């Protein structure tokens, strides 16, 4: 059975009939709707359905679990973990909940936390090959290669035709410098999936380490035939050809490796070596210079926005938010008039005057959530992210279900380097129905 690395477990949806028998009928209907939407890949719709089921029956672990799966499929792994936490609180014997939480923790690079979840899942269900495989992957990510090897071997014991497990075990053996053992595993992958280029490339790399350079070239030829843009395969084939003193052919491979991956300093070194052997000393020196410079690049630039979101990205994503204020009856203190005039002034390119009007609106009506949010939006556009955060905090305190505020606050937090806090806010925005948050989560929270 072919496995993909750390799947989102979309097939682990719980059957509603056995898990919600004691829930209210309306909660069951929402739950069933969530299951149906999940199966049709409408994960946003599923999330909303499970949220309604939770509102009507907050003690049903399956609703939290399946909402977690929906969030995970929307790449909102932080939000998914919170739901899995609740599902486990309600039902501590659910192996799938631990397994799924481990997957989401892995996607957030919390491999030690994932290990604990996978181990607990294995305790509850010791014959689940996927749990062993996932635990092996997390172990390898934190350099626990011996433990990873044992987990991949157990996966293969339970699923003898699992090509992915053989492949990852082969890579793990390379890490442990067991190149002969890795060749055997890569060969097994080739037998099961003969058109998988990574298996030929991996076997070729191991053959290089075993000084079987002719065998390495043959395997790397096949890898490149199946995947013509694999820079590493060209590099290793060039290296093997260099070892066979075929410098002219090796030069072409190094050229191709560099064209596909311009920062491969090892390829520059290899090409320089070949050029030197072929009498092109000027070209050789130029390549050696590149090998030295690329390997020692140390950029220490001052960054104001310390997250992955730059000022420009923040502006673009924040400006997606549409004005949602509707006309309301004008109160005797005229706060609504100041608010509306402030919005108009901002649209006319007068942000400072707009802030003065919004200040007045808030002074007259201190519970005016929209005014805080609008003022925060203007402050953010003017580069005052800390002031914007303060206004967003006030708006959320006044209206805890104001989805757009969570969205904007999440963007600002992320841009200032608080990726975890930002992504949790984006998750909350999506949970409250502001679906553009999931595109940002997909791009910046994984």
TrEMBL record:
Keywords from the named record: Repeat, Signal, TPR repeat
Residues of the signal peptide: 1-23
Example of a GO cellular component annotation carried by this entry: cell outer membrane
GO biological process: receptor-mediated virion attachment to host cell
SMART domains to which the protein is assigned, alphabetical: TPR
Organism superkingdom: Bacteria
Cross-referenced Pfam families: TPR_11, TPR_16, TPR_17, TPR_8
Residues in TPR repeats: 27-60, 61-94, 95-128, 129-162, 163-196, 197-230, 231-264, 335-368, 369-402
Name used for this protein in its record: Tetratricopeptide TPR_2 repeat protein
């Amino acid at each position: 059975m072919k496995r993909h690395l750390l799947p989102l477990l979309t097939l682990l949806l719980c059957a509603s009939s056995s898990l919600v028998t004691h829930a209210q009928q309306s909660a069951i209907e929402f739950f069933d709707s969530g299951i149906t939407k999940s199966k049709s890949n409408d994960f946003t719709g599923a999330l909303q359905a499970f949220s309604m089921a939770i509102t009507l029956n907050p003690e049903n672990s399956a609703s939290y679990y399946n909402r977690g799966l929906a969030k995970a499929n929307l790449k909102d792994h932080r939000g998914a973990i919170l739901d899995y936490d609740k599902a486990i609180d309600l039902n501590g014997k659910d192996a799938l909940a631990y397994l799924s939480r481990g997957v989401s923790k892995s996607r957030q690079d919390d491999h030690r936390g994932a290990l604990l979840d996978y181990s607990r899942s294995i305790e509850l269900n010791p014959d689940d090959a996927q749990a062993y495989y996932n635990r092996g992957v997390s172990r390898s990510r934190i350099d626990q290669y011996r433990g990873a090897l044992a987990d991949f071997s157990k996966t293969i014991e339970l699923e003898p035709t699992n090509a992915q497990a053989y492949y990852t075990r082969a890579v793990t053996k390379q890490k442990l410098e067991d190149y002969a053992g890795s060749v055997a595993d890569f060969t097994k992958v080739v037998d099961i999936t003969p058109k998988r280029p990574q298996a030929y490339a991996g076997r070729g790399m191991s053959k290089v380490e075993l000084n079987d350079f002719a065998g390495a070239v043959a395997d790397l030829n096949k890898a490149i035939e199946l995947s013509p843009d694999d820079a590493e395969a060209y590099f290793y084939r060039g290296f093997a050809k260099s070892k066979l003193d075929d410098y002219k052919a090796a030069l072409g491979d190094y050229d191709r490796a560099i064209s596909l991956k311009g920062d491969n300093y090892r390829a520059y070194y290899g090409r320089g070596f070949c050029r030197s052997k072929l009498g092109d000393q000027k070209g050789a020196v130029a390549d050696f210079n590149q090998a030295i410079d690329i390997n020692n690049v140390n950029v220490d630039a001052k960054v104001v926005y310390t997250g992955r979101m730059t000022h420009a990205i923040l502006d673009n994503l924040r400006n997606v938010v549409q004005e949602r204020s509707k006309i309301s009856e004008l109160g005797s203190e005229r706060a609504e008039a100041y608010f509306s005039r402030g919005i108009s002034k901002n649209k006319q390119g007068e942000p400072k005057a707009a802030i003065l009007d919004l200040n007045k609106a808030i002074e007259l009506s201190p519970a005016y959530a929209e005014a805080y949010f609008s003022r925060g939006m203007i402050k953010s556009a003017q580069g005052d992210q800390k002031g914007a955060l303060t206004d967003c905090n006030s708006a959320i305190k006044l209206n805890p279900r104001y989805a757009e505020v969570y969205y904007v606050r999440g963007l600002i937090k992320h841009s200032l380097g608080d990726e975890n806090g930002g992504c949790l806010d984006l998750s909350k925005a999506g949970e409250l129905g502001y679906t553009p948050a999931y595109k940002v989560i997909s791009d910046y929270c994984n």
